[in-house]
Request: fold
Amino acid sequence: MITLNDQNIYTIGGISATSLAQKYGTPLYVYDEAIMRGQFHRLDTAFSPIPLRKINYAMKALSNINVLRVMRSMGSGIDAVSVNEVKIAIRAGFAPQDIIYTPNGVPMSEIDEAVALGVHINIDSLDTLTAFAEKHHGVAVGVRINPHIHAGGNEKICTGGKGSKFGISIEYMDILETLVREKNITINGVHMHTGSDIYDVDIFLQGAKLLFSVAERFSTIEYVDFGSGFKVMYRKGDHITDVERLGRKLSKAFNEFTGRCGRPIRFMIEPGKFLVSDSGTLLVTANWVKTTPATTFAQVDSGLNHLIRPMMYDSYHHIVNISNPLAEKKVYDVTGYICETDNFAKDRRLNEVRPGDVLAIMNAGAYGYTMASVYNSRFRPAEVLVRDGKDYLISKADTLEDILSRQVDLG
Ligand SMILES: Cc1ncc(COP(=O)(O)O)c(C=O)c1O
Reply:
């Protein structure tokens, strides 16, 4: 999150954003820890009517070890989707029982590793569950359910529809129950993640109802995991998930559900974007301002190699020119330097952009750096964390050596 102060200086966590760009160079990812903490607190408060609750941070959104430690310090657990994420979370100090691993389509060997590491596991297909039961007899396991609810801000992040590859179809619950009985499997949790960027509270409630009906089939359930998908504000006027309303309604439904079960069951959610999106800003410099007969381009020193979301999900990221905040506004396409179309924004009104100006791309905390690559043999940016008014380098930019060191030169 970047804000304009009384002296017309853009700041991140109280530090001038231009001074950060000067100190570390651009492109640069900057994260404001206070925003993450505020978001965690807000979500935890929204679900406070549920005594036994756990927020598991979806570390795929932003997996720097320092960010994981921030989450841990607030009592968060971890939602991991690969065994490497599990290992990084353990390095960050999370206990295995605070990590929930929900893979999709991974080899059995990866699941075996997760079993050996002692984390909770959600299995998302009947065949995998059968193989799991044969190999890990007696190990309790959770199941990911596909609720057949098509929802989400973009087709690529709708994960709960009938045609989606995720989860065990809600239509297969009788088969699941038979399998569990025949193989003597202990199902200790049910999980669902319908999609991302869902603002309609009723969609979450509809999914919850289905999940309760599945959970009620298994007397060994210890947790119900509702996944995530809470939509954040990208621009003024956006529909966003009303987490306070969701908290009230889902808490009530959950407490009624546990009342029916007559024993304590843990409530879980696994937000990524909600916790870190707004905390992150990508600072870039305009290399050139290029005018064509049709368009004026602000060409910046970054691209889809650093923030792929606009090209991958058509996501909107608010952009401000922090070097020229009082100038008249003009219309630009903000583009990167990659060898294919890589717009950050189209037809965007910005304070006049001059070569050398620093632009701040907002809501870049989630799925920004973690999806970055060295495409075009360009370096991934450095990352900086702002904590209590001080800035800390938390990952270095790549070097040419980093890129070349992974190549095997056959001469
Ligand atoms: C299984 C699972 N859980 C949680 C998340 C986090 O979603 P969000 O960033 O919308 O909170 C995702 C995102 O892809 C996911 O696939």
User: Anything to note?
Assistant: The domain at 3-31+279-405 is CATH 2.40.37.10 (Lyase, Ornithine Decarboxylase; Chain A, domain 1).
